[in-house]
Amino acid sequence: MSRISLSRHLITQQHAGTISADLRLLIEVVARACKAISHAVSKGALGDIMGEAGTGNIQGEAQKKLDVISNEILLEANEWGGHLAGMASEEMEHPYQIPGQYPRGAYLLLFDPLDGSSNIDVNVSIGTIFSVLRCPDGMAGTEEAFLQPGTQQVAAGYTVYGPQTQLILTTGNGVFGFTLDREQGSFVLTQENIQIPTTTKEFAINMSNQRHWQAPVQRYIGELLAGKTGVRGKDYNMRWIASMVADVHRILNRGGIFMYPRDNREADKPGKLRLMYEANPMSFIVEQAGGAATNGYQRILEIQPEKLHQRVAVFLGSKEEVAQVTQYHQTDL
Ligand code: P6P
């Protein structure tokens, strides 16, 4: 296959009418920022990027230096291009206002600049997740503009910083994978129309929370653990990297189901993961790849957001398994 760069792929999509010139520019700018983050990540202890930043974020979490660095890289790369009406980040309480000296555009960019940051200091794969919405007319600069269901996304993607740096992207016409060629400094198309297998023998969940799960999840996981001897009639394998980007990337490539259920201890919190810049972009990608994504009760993409940083329970991946655990939520009421 002749090498097709991300730029050539996006120009082809623009000529086909599936994306606008400004959306193409936005995606290229985000990809360039991810290259800079990849460079910072790969320095490890040789760069001043490890450990705590000594600050906290809106989530009440201690920020790693790389959380802050990655957030700043994305803000600085995107604020001047004229393609955005605003940005929102896991690391910032309120949306970022495009500085007055720069033109504003039609799109809203949301991101988790460095997902899985607890893995930074132990050299395990981490990533950047992003989601793109159109800004409703006259709402530039407002938080309300961001509160759109995931079905309104015009693009979503993630970059996984692992043995390779790979960018996974959808603009609503399938899922494409690009691998960073460090010698050329460009993302090269390496996967087209990625499809998630409908069935699987692999599940991803943090088992240490088992005592806090609700009945439908207890029943479902119990069946997986029973393996051949139980109703599912097959043995399952478990993987948990504690980096959503890495777990979802595995599922995108070989199937599986990723779960972060709600925790009985926190009735006010429907889950750990954030809807707007983790669950929604990943759900868009997974559905575009033929998988499914629910909160146990409905498609994640159909949830009407009420707050920028609201959390959600997540069950996503191979269609058959997501349907099964979702069905138990409907019947085991
Ligand atoms: P736990 C990382 O902090 C994250 O937000 C996701 O990337 C990951 O899937 C999950 O939390 C890991 O959670 O409870 O296993 O640390």
UniProtKB/TrEMBL annotation:
Substrate binds at residues 115-118, 206, 272. Keywords: Carbohydrate metabolism, Cytoplasm, Hydrolase, Magnesium, Metal-binding. Pathway: Carbohydrate biosynthesis. Residues 5-192 form the Fructose-1-6-bisphosphatase class I N-terminal domain. GO terms for molecular function: fructose 1,6-bisphosphate 1-phosphatase activity; magnesium ion binding. This is Fructose-1,6-bisphosphatase class 1. Homotetramer. Its EC number is 3.1.3.11. InterPro entries: FBPase_C_dom (IPR044015), FBPase_class-1 (IPR000146), FBPase_N (IPR033391), FBPtase (IPR028343). It comes from Parvibium lacunae. Its cofactor is Mg(2+).
